[in-house]
Amino acid sequence: MSKIIGIHGSDRGIRLKRIYDEPAASDGFRILVERLWPRGLRKEDAAIDLWLKEIAPSTELRRWYGHDVARWPEFRRRYEAELRANGDAVHAFEECAAHHRTMTFLYAAHDNEHNSAVVLRDFVQRLMTSTANETRRERHPSRRPARRPHDRR
């Protein structure tokens, strides 16, 4: 089952979906976010628009996590650190969001709540939200004068 999270505006979003689920027109731009090709799936049957294996967790992190839910909080922390250090791959998502109203991150894991696509979606959403907020501030700077230390409100 796919889930949608808004990017900036209620008509934009990031969906999560298992690569093995049937493609749908509502998926929008389909991005495989796995480092390894999913087992048992032929490339011609995958219906993906982009494979960004560079954005997936490192092999070392993926092996360390091993889908052990007890390691989930630490996995999230480590993977987000990898994402912050991977500016080129993250920039690819900014480009996709600029051109596609809906993106679907495709993953292979059985666990829909504890997988790298969940972390990636949350990370990209925060990135897109902060970018949208910065753009709004640039367009509409505050007209209030800066507060001085002795001002009381």
Report on this structure:
Helix content is 38%, strand content 14%. By secondary structure, it is of the alpha/beta class. It has a five-stranded mixed sheet with strand order 1-2-5-3-4, with helices on one face. It has helices at 59-65, 72-85, 87-99, 116-139, and strands at residues 3-5, 13-18, 29-32, 50-51, 102-107. A hairpin with a 7-residue loop joins strand 1 (3-5) and strand 2.
Oligomer, anyone? single chain
Let me know the number of strands: 5
Helix and strand content put the structural class at alpha/beta
Helix content: 25-40%
Instruction: Characterize the overall form.
Output: globular
Radius of gyration: 18 Å
Q: Biggest β-sheet: count, sense, barrel?
A: 5 strands, mixed
SSE sequence, one letter per element: EEEEHHHEH
Terminal-residue CA separation: 50 Å
Strand order of the largest sheet: 1-2-5-3-4
Number of helices: 4
Task: Output mean pLDDT.
Answer: 83
> Which spans have pLDDT < 50 for at least 5 consecutive residues?
1-11
Question: What percentage of the residues does DSSP assign to strands (E)?
Answer: 5-15%
What are the key terms here?
disordered N terminus, five-stranded mixed beta sheet, 5 strands
In short:
The chain is an alpha/beta fold and 153 residues long.
